[in-house]
Amino acid sequence: MKTLVTYMTQTGNTKKIAEAIYGEIAGEKDIKDIKDISNFEGYNLVFVGFPIIQFDIPENVSKFVKENVAGKNIAFFMTHATPEGAEPIQSWTGSTKDIAASGNYLGTFECQGELAQPIIDMLMKSDDPNMKAFGEMGPSTKGQPDASRVQKAKEFAKGIQAKVK
Ligand SMILES: Cc1cc2nc3c(=O)[nH]c(=O)nc-3n(C[C@H](O)[C@H](O)[C@H](O)COP(=O)(O)O)c2cc1C
């Protein structure tokens, strides 16, 4: 049993969750930036993490998963600035199921991640009221993912491992 935790991150939030998940994995394991892997070969279980960018799973992540997921046990973790429980999150979780369709989909963890200040500043300057509203919400994301989210990610990792044993 060998597990890979791989992730994309721009400001460190998703990496924080990746490290929490990695810490809970029993047995042989690797943690790698998705930029540094070329496939999922040699792993029985793969955790793939990413931030939501412009209302979707980043294209490089969904493409990589679709091309490599066949026959693999796979779970996802994502961070987003959108408040937890908001409507779009369900659709993003649904998208993870879709991109894993040729593999064995095990679940998706999601939590809020801090919106970086330069992005808040950029959004606040936008003429688009939707973008501006998103920027206004930015300060409420400060400090996320916090210790309680990190703990939930650890519990998620344990639950996923129990499914493949
Ligand atoms: C360019 C950009 C676009 C983003 N678009 C969204 C979005 O559409 N919805 C959302 O909830 N969060 C959005 N975010 C916020 C990130 O998903 C969130 O801050 C995430 O935790 C960043 O993870 P990272 O630190 O691992 O890069 C965006 C962030 C950036 C930088």
TrEMBL record:
It comes from the Archaea. One of its GO terms (molecular function) is FMN binding. Pfam families: Flavodoxin_3. Residues 4-156 form the Flavodoxin-like domain. Residues 136-165 are annotated as: Disordered. InterPro entries: Flavodoxin/NO_synth, Flavoprotein-like_sf, Protoporphyrinogen_IX_DH. GO terms for biological process: heme biosynthetic process. This is Flavodoxin. It comes from Methanosarcina lacustris Z-7289. The lineage of its organism: Archaea, Methanobacteriati, Methanobacteriota, Stenosarchaea group, Methanomicrobia.
